[in-house]
């Protein structure tokens, strides 16, 4: 089976690959505490809403979600079809965020970024005063949900209050906690910021359950 998309033939394997990316993106945001309605990440929904006349339309894959307890915390997810993302695309993203009154975006891209576009993203993410924050994921990073691997333990990001409670409980400073890099795939998946603490729960045949903590740097 094949699907025609933008004057090129897309194999069933490619179509299923994009569905897996779409599904993983929804799962990732749900794990971050965003509200993802049931059924939005199913194959039937994807086929119904992202395909037109047999063509997979990446523009239709775009979606936005909000935090469960903070409806003002919204994020827009985009799936550009461009193999190379340039500065003009980033300008379009900023306009779209402005019009939707959303401050955060995730771009799931198929190819590469130009130097100008990369610098624009770095600039937006470098200061707290920036109007928009943009996360970048290559499509290949999201084909498989890394947290579903049998050897990956459960990771949960602590709230600010939970972090304070942890430090008080063990009478330690945050500099004494083991570290996890902000570029670590799990940190990136969870959208962890520097200074946040991740609780890691491992199952052990000896102790049953082993809990550790790492601070993102």
TrEMBL record:
Classification via InterPro entries: Arch_Rpo5/euc_Rpb5 (IPR014381), RNA_pol_Rpb5_N (IPR005571), RNA_pol_Rpb5_N_sf (IPR036710), RNA_pol_subH/Rpb5_C (IPR000783), RPB5-like_sf (IPR035913)
Supply one GO molecular-function term: DNA binding
Please verify whether the record's keywords include Signal: no
Assign the protein's first listed, main location to one coarse class: nucleus
What region holds the RNA polymerase subunit H/Rpb5 C-terminal domain? 144-216
Which SUPFAM superfamilies does this UniProt record tie to the protein?
Answer: Eukaryotic RPB5 N-terminal domain, RPB5-like RNA polymerase subunit
Give a Gene Ontology cellular component term annotated to this protein: RNA polymerase II, core complex
Q: Where are the transmembrane segments?
A: none
Query: Where does it localize?
Result: Nucleus
| Keywords attached to this entry | DNA-directed RNA polymerase, Nucleus, Transcription
Question: Where does this protein have coiled-coil stretches?
Answer: none
Q: Which Gene3D superfamilies match?
A: RNA polymerase, Rpb5, N-terminal domain, RPB5-like RNA polymerase subunit
Q: Which GO terms describe its biological process?
A: transcription by RNA polymerase II; transcription elongation by RNA polymerase I; tRNA transcription by RNA polymerase III
Query: Which residue range or ranges hold the RNA polymerase Rpb5 N-terminal domain?
Result: 12-96
One Pfam family of this protein, by short name? RNA_pol_Rpb5_N
Q: Which HAMAP family match?
A: RNApol_Rpo5_RPB5
Family, per entry: Belongs to the archaeal Rpo5/eukaryotic RPB5 RNA polymerase subunit family.
Q: What is this protein called?
A: DNA-directed RNA polymerases I, II, and III subunit RPABC1
């Amino acid at each position: 089976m094949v699907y025609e998309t933008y004057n090129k033939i897309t194999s069933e394997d490619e179509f299923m690959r994009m569905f897996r990316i779409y599904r993983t993106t929804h799962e990732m945001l749900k794990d971050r505490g965003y509200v993802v309605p049931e059924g939005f990440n199913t194959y039937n929904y994807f086929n119904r809403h992202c395909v037109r006349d047999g063509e997979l339309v990446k523009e239709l894959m775009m979606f936005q979600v909000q935090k469960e307890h903070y409806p003002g915390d919204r994020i827009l997810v985009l799936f550009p079809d461009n193999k190379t993302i340039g500065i003009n695309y980033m300008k379009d993203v900023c306009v779209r965020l402005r019009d939707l009154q959303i401050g955060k975006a995730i771009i799931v891209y198929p190819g590469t970024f130009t130097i100008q576009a990369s610098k624009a993203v770095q600039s937006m993410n470098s200061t707290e005063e920036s109007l928009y924050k943009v996360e970048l994921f290559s499509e290949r990073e999201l084909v498989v949900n890394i947290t579903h691997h049998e050897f990956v333990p459960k990771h949960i990001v602590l709230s600010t209050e939970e972090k304070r409670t942890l430090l008080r409980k063990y009478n330690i400073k945050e500099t004494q906690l083991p570290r996890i890099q902000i570029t670590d795939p799990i940190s990136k998946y969870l959208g962890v910021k520097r200074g946040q603490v991740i609780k890691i729960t491992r199952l052990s045949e000896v102790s049953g359950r082993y809990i550790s903590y790492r601070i993102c740097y």
